[in-house]
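Re: the request from the purification team.
They wanted to know what the chain is likely to look like in 3D before they choose a buffer screen. I agreed to run a prediction and write the result into the notebook, where they can find it.
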Amino acid sequence: MTVVVLRGTIGAGKFGTPEQDFNDLKNHFYAARKHGEPHRVLTESNQANNNKNDEASNADGANNYATFDINKILVDEGEDEKPDPNRPYSLGPKISDWNQLREKWLSENPSFSNFIKPNKPRVLLVTGSSPKPCENPVGDHYLLKSIKNKIDYCRLHGIEIFYNMALLDAEMAGFWAKLPLIRKLLLSHPEVEFLWWMDSDAMFTDMAFEVPWERYKDSNFVMHGWNEMVYDEKNWIGLNTGSFLLRNCQWSLDLLDAWSPMGPKGKIRDEAGKVLTRELKNRPVFEADDQSAMVYLLATQRDKWGDKVYLENAYYLHGYWGILVDRYEEMIENYHPGLGDHRWPLVTHFVGCKPCGKFGDYSVERCLKQMDRAFNFGDNQILQIYGFTHKSLASRRVRRVRNETTNPLEVKDELGLLHPAFKAVRVSTTS
């Protein structure tokens, strides 16, 4: 029986005499041991060496992400190109016939219409962050939450999205980095009717609200703000440039050209900051920023730009977090998504929190707690489509709020977010 089992394992052999069969088995196992032993020893030796290397790596921290100095691999090649101090700054070559060029392109490419349905323009939402990791470990996590939030809103409203992590013009770092990017995207995407800029520290908190595009048929630039504060008071917070809509047209290119001269870093930006502090109400002393520059431009050149600028305050294209986030529970109890205003804000903007930096203008704990609440407030409107919600606005965990059913297609989409009307395909019929 033993021989049968062994033969079943190693093969039938040559079917010789019992003595020959015994010798055959002995030789087989001797050969297997002879060739297998070195292999086993080598394998064990390699494993031992690997374990020693791992222990050594762990000992000196080579495997520890928390202690690794990221600057070892964040190496910028070469130096930034130094501008000619004798030449005035420009975002690019002067373009004067963009409307004609764009109209011709649209007529030659009818499949890329600038309107995806009547009164619904093709929109590109643009946002971004630094090419380097955040200066604090948790900052990148909140950037991830912020972009996830924007992707959700854009998916529901038929908006394309562009996330940028490249500084296109070293002269326009900081506040001003958006301007070269916006100009490049307008010129590269003639099919886009409106570009929607949104800061990385702003989140959508009303997923059901649709921008009233028809209201802006005669406007090229839409910002959250108040005419009295900008044109009468020249108040530096009379508008906000953290979230705005800009039409793709010649007027907008001209505006960017007029907006950008205060932006180049160094002496120009510092001197411009002094002018803005002197001319604008309540502005602190610091270098020129894009928001103050826009208030100054509109207040001093209203005749040139004002007719095409819409300062929106009927809903929150930008909503200051400090007056909104603590009221979320009240909003949930008394109101519903789709309002966009103080009752249920479209955008909650965490101005001053600077989650990607080392220091903010407010308590870190307060900012991060409130950012979590804002994210969950918006995310609940996404999760409810699928029958879930966060256990609380402070919790990452979710709970089921709708029982499973054998007829899932009969479940009512209460906010109309699962299959928005604009996504319906019109089927042409012929009689």
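For the purification team: The first helix runs from residue 2 to 10.
Please add any questions underneath this entry.
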